[in-house]
Amino acid sequence: MAGRPREFDRDQALEKARDAFWTRGYEGTSMADLVSALGLASPRIYAAFGSKENLFREAVVLYETREGSFATRALAEEPTARRFVERLLRDAIEVYTRPDLPRGCMVVSAATNCAVENDGVLRWLAERRRARNTLIVERLRKGIRDGELKPDTGPEVLGDYYTTVLFGLSVQARDGVPKERLHALVTVAMQVLDARLSGKP
């Protein structure tokens, strides 16, 4: 009946779905896997979320507003482009290697290859990854405007580089590379940005 209260916690079910998709990816997570992870029959999952794809999209948004929100926090809280980039990468490592969560970035690893019928999911995730790249590039542009970075700095190339480092950290974390080694990699990667600093206060 329409007025009957749900017998399960929707938010809790969404968290379980997030972890299942985060671990196995979109195509690697079957409805049977979701039934097992959520402890709900498939008709109840469809009734609550509409479809597997809708559930996945909600799970990704949940990830981005919680674990994946480190980039927007760094952008809001760090006063310089250099500090933003370093915090972005180091906070990413902390999220990607948390022992209580699946490793890596959900948006990076959930679907890099899909069957043709799931091209919409592939494009949707690619848009979200491009948005992360845009955020980095725009912050570097501001660093140039503010005089922090040399005027001949190429923000697109530098932004693409740090986006590649960021996504590469996700792959390395999923492969089990220790956190200490990932942080050491960031120390090396920051030398690229340090070479573009103007030296002005």
From TrEMBL:
Residues 7-67 form the HTH tetR-type domain. It comes from the Bacteria. Residues 30-49 bind DNA. InterPro entries: DNA-bd_HTH_TetR-type_CS, Homeodomain-like_sf, HTH_TetR, Tet_transcr_reg_TetR-rel_C_sf, TetR_C. GO terms for molecular function: DNA binding. Keywords: DNA-binding, Transcription, Transcription regulation. Pfam families: TetR_C_13 (PF16925), TetR_N (PF00440). Gene3D superfamilies: Homeodomain-like, Tetracycline Repressor, domain 2. The keyword Glycoprotein does not apply. The keyword Endoplasmic reticulum does not apply. PROSITE patterns: HTH_TETR_1, HTH_TETR_2. This is TetR family transcriptional regulator.
